[in-house]
Each structure stands twice: as structure tokens, then as C-alpha cells.
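Recall that a protein's primary structure is simply its ordered list of amino acids. Everything else, from secondary elements to tertiary packing, is in principle encoded there. The following example makes that idea concrete.
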Amino acid sequence: MRYLFLLLGIVSLSLLPFTGVQAQEIPDDQCLCYCTGDKGATQDGLVADSGTCEQFCESESRSILQCYTSGQEELLPGNNNLCWTEADCVEEIVETHNGDTPSIWGEQERKCLQGRGYCYNPPGTLNPYTGRSATAQLGVQIGDLERPDDMAEYIGAIYRFLLPVGALLAVLMFMIAGLQWMTARGDASKLSAAKTRIGTATLGIVILLLAYTIAVLIDPNLVSFNVFRVPKVQSVIYLDGANSCENLQQRGAEILPDTGGCGDVASVVSLENVTAGNVIIGIEEKDQCTYSECASVYERCSSSGGTVTPECVRCNEVHSGALGGTSLFPSERQCGDLSLARDPDFAALDVNYYCEYVETQYFDGVSDFCAEIVYPTKTNGLDCDVLRQDYGENCRAYDFVQAHMNGSYNEIDDIEGTDGVFPLLDTVCSSDPCGFGGPGESCYVFSLDGPGYGFDEVFANCANTNSLYGFDDCVDKDGNEADCYLAKDGFDPVDILAIKEFLIKLIIHP
């Protein structure tokens, strides 16, 4: 447990303000004075030195936060990425054991500008990468607490546990003092000891009952224990000329003309309404931006293939060839930029999208493509539900997924790349997006090139890892035996046995 708290402490120390939203320049011979109080930090102007700043803050019945000198502009309270407004904090929804839960705003923070404070994850927050809670199991349960989320909850539980324990001890002291009094039999020293014990117990229980009020008067954080909690860091958005006109408009910039298509250039007219807080402005009025919208949701506005003017293009349209190709040259980066998964319209759909680069084995640079992986239709990506209904829940189902490239459709196990690999089949099969691999196993590409035989569907299959020959011993996701559906491949049982015998001989005696 102590290692957990040490780690939390180190993390909290590392979360220092680092952004540069405010670009205010401070003269070398002056410092920018900030005073602070219960209502937060305020900028009180340039002064000669920190002593002058401290005197001014005291005259205002506040304390000095800091007098920032030249080179410390990025440390100004307005640039503190730990400071949130209450609205921004509660709108930050995180996944917990109890479902989606708003973040917790920690009230006004003295180090933040007025109306801003620290923001914390709610109890039971799940790690977004592992889906598990980062809580630690206590060796000794404290009340009802078994798994504290942070040090604040741990210390708070101890505090709440000690309150009734302290009250019980005070009552016990009263009982002992009473017995001393009754058995003193007129002994002055024993009576004095009993009276002292009663007085001490009375004082202790009064302090115990008033502890909360006293702590609040000293510092509210003493009862909330926020000093032990790790605050959330706001994301930083950097706006410059590389942002599209649409993106700048969403952040409040005024653009003329206010509409445009892919590649259209416009000018930034005003930045007065740009959202502040966690936005760094790296663009000025009269600077230019470029529109990036396309008429079809399946297209992307792209210019990363060497063309000067951006154009709207769909993944399956990009190809190269000696007899003609597109202005965008296919590459891993280019195909990745055209992925449909980047569009928010598809984010809520239970469909897997791939835009993959295919470098073929035929004449270097002549037949390279960006390919969309689709099933069952030509436009909607890989639908696992339909694939499951058609071919069951085993790895062989991925053989029937298709690739759409340059107007043609082919099953992905028929598309051979360079060096005898099947890039699309390997991408889908190894990632197993539909979860068809059985318990404790996965999917893999089984390929075999026999004498006199080229690669085809029979010798390049997506198979369960317990399959020796690539199309036998199929199991579903529950580990039950599944049909490898070879009859749907166009083979009858006699053909299946003949192929299997051939493969056995080929593997044992190549």
C-alpha cells in the first residue's frame, strides 16, 4: 500500500502547469504580481519586485501567490492546466464501476484564476486502456472501505473510523474516573486524579466533536483531503495555420468566406470569440486556412501524395500503375489517412474499418493500391454480425471478407503481396476483430506453396491456432467444435479428403 501512495505522490508532483495560453510578455526589470485568496488568484499588475507585490497583496487583505518575472510567462495561473471551470469539469465524463460518471470539481483553488479549481476522477474510475480499476486491495479493511481509489479516500476512511473510536475512549475515561471517584473514600489525591481524568476526557471529546469545524476554519482541504488527491490535467489544443478552416470555426474563429470545399482557401478575420482556457493560439488575424470538407462521408480531403492542391478521394480510389494512376500515390501513410474509421459518423457503429496499403508482387510500383476491407456490402466496412451469421464463429470466416480497390472486389485471401505474403488476410486474421478465436488461442494465416501449385484460397487461409492444416479442427469462440464450412468453398467431401492427404504428404515429405 505504501508503494501505491508513493506512486500517487510522484505523479502529483509531475503534473505541473506547462501550457502557454497567455502570451503576455513581462519586462526584464519588473515582475507581474498575482495575489490570491478564497476567491482565487488575480493579476494585480507590474511592480518593481516581489517585496512590492507582497506589500500590495497585504494591503488588499490577501496573500501573495507569486511575482512572475521574464521567462516565467508559461507559469502564469491562466496557463495552469490543472485549473478547470466547474462546467468543464462535470462535463468530463469518465467510466467507472457504476457506469459513466461526471468528474468531481474540487471547488475554488487559490492557485487558479477566479471561478476555477482542480478536477478529480470519481471513485471507481476504470483505466481507459485496461478497463480495470487502479484501486488497491487493503490488507485490513477500514470500516466499509476495501479498495481506496487514492490516498485521500484512504486517509478519509481512517479519519471517519477514528471519530467513533475517540468518542468511545472518552466515554471509557469517564467510566474509569467515576470508579476512581467512588473508591477514593475521601482520599484527596485520588479525588484529584479522578477530577483531572474527567477534565481531560471532557476536553478531548469537545475537541473531537469540534475537530471538523476547527479544520475547516484552518484550511478546508484538511477535511476534504484534496491535497492528497491527483488532479486531472486538461488537454491542450493548439490552433495554427495547419488547422482546417472548419476546425478554427468550431473554436470560435471568424473565417471569410465562411464556407468552402476541399482545398478552398479563406482568411481569418477575427479571433475574439476563440475559446480560451486550454487553447493555445498560434495564428493571427489575416492568416489563411484551408477548407477540408468533402461532399461524401466516405471521402477525405487529402494532399499527402505529392499533389499541390488537396482533393476529395476515397480509399479504394487510390492506386498506381504504368497505364495510369491517381494523383495521390498509395503508401502506408496515405492509406491510413483515408481510413473511414476517422469519421465520427462511424464511431457509434459496430463495424470495423480498414484502409490498407497493398504492394503487389507484379512489377515494382505498377500495381499498388489502397484497399477497403468490406463485408458484406461494398460500402460499410466489416460487419462482424453478418459475417458470423453467414459463416459461424471461427477464424475461417475471415477468408470470405473482400477487398475493394480500384473498382474491383476480391476475397482478401486471394490478394498476394510481395515476398509471398497476403497482407490483407494477415491484417484481418491476426487482429481477429470479431473475436472468432477460441479460448486461449487466436487466429493465424496458414499458407503453403506446393510443387506445381501457386498460392490460392486452399493454401492461404485464416485458421485457428490449433489447426494443423489450415482448414481443420475449427472451434468457435466458446471452444466448441465448429464446421470449417469447406463445402461453401466449392469442395465436396471427397475433394476435402484428397486435399488434406496431399497437404500431409507435402508437409511430411516436401
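The CA atoms of residues 449 and 455 lie 6 Å apart. The two ends are 59 Å apart (CA to CA).
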